[in-house]
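Worked example

This section walks through a single chain of length 417. The input is the sequence exactly as stored; nothing has been trimmed or padded.
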Amino acid sequence: MDRVIAKKRWNRKRILTIAGIAGVAGLAIASYVLTSGKSRLNVDAERVTVSEVKNGSFQEFIPVNGVVLPITTIYLDASEGGRVEEKFVEDGAIMKKGEAILRLSNTDLELSLVNQETSVYNLLTQMQISQNAAQQNTVTRLNQLTDASSQLKEAERVYKLNKGLYEQKAIGAQEFKQSENNYYYLLEKKKLSERIMGQDSVSNTQQLSQAKQSYLGSQNALNVMRKKVGDLIVRAPVDGQLTSLDAEIGQSKNKGERLGQLDVLSGFKVRVDIDEHYISRIYTGLVGGFTFANKDYKLKIKKVYTQVTNGRFQVDMEFEGEVPQGIRRGQTLQIRLALSDETQALLLAKGGFYQQTGGNWVFKVSESGNTAYKVDVQLGRQNPDYYEVLQGLKPGDKVVTSSYENYGNMQELVLKK
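Given that input, the structure is written out below as C-alpha cells.
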C-alpha cells in the first residue's frame, strides 16, 4: 500500500534564498550609511538640555567669596615684656580710647626706673650746688672789682694832686713817682679784674648750659623710662571692639608678642580670595555685587595684594553706598566680581557640552526638533550663566547644551520623544 509523503515547508533551497536576500539588504543598508557621511545616535529627548540662543545684556564676571572684616584693625602687641597681673576686661568688650585692658609687671624695668629717677635727682642736686658756687664766685669777683675800682679812684686822686704839686715844686720826684706807679698799678688791676669777671661770666654761662643739657637729657631718659613702665598697662589706642585677646593672669609675655586686636566699628570691608588666573585683570576700582536679605549691594576694590599663596591672591573691597543692616564680622558673602562693562551680545546658556567641544562646535537642533546636527561655532567671553557667541549661531537657534560625553564621534542626534 502506497503512503503519502508530506512536502517540507522550509527546505534547504528556500533557506539559502532568504539568507541571500537578507545579506544583500544588509549590504545595501551598510553602503547607505557609509556613503551618506553621517553617523547617527538615538537620544532620549527628555535626557538632554536644549537652550535657545538669544540677544541680551552680557557682563563678564566671576563668582568669588569674601569675608566681612572691620574697616580698620589695630593689633595690640606688648611694648614691654612682663607677667600678666590683672585683666580689666574680657574678649569682645567695647572699648573707649585710653581705657585699660590689662596690666603687666616687670621688676627689672621698675628697678631701672627707680635708678634713673635717683640719677636725675643727683644730677639736679649737683647742678644746684654748681650754680650756688658760681653765684658765690661771681659775688667774690664783684667785690674784688669794686675794691679795685675804689682803690683806683683814690690812687687817681692822689696821682693828680701830686702831679700838680710836683709841677709847682711843692713835693719831690720820689713821692710823685710813687703815686704815679700806684695809680697805673691799680688801673691794670682793675682791667684784670674786669677781664676775669668777663671770663668767669662766660665760663659760668657755658657750665650752666652744659648742666641744663645734661639735666634735660636725663629728664628725657627718665620720661622714656616712665613711659615704658606706663606701657605695662595696656590701653585701647582707639575706640573699638576688643577681639582675639590672648592673655591669662600669671602668663608671661615677651616684648612684641601679640596680645589681641581692636576692631574699629566705624565701618566694614570685605577680604576676597581670587584665583591667580585672573591676577592680570584685577585692579583697584573694579566693582562687584552681592545679594543680602533679598536686596542688592555694591562693592569696589580698594586694595590689591599681589602676593600669591596656594594659587590665590587677595583684594580688599569696600561698600559703595548703603551698607547692609545686620552684617557681622566674619560673615561670608558670595560676590559677583565684574571684569567688564555691561554690553549687548548673542548669548548661549552654559552647560556641560563645553567640556567635550572646548566651545568649537555644538549640536544644533533642527527646525523640526527631531534631530540635532553638528555645527562649528566660535565662543568668546563667559560668565557663570552664559557664553558670548561670536560666530556660527543666530538668535532663535536651539542648541543641545548638556554633556556630550556619551556621543562619541556622532555627527547627528535623533531626538526620540
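What to look for: The CA atoms of residues 257 and 359 lie 55 Å apart.
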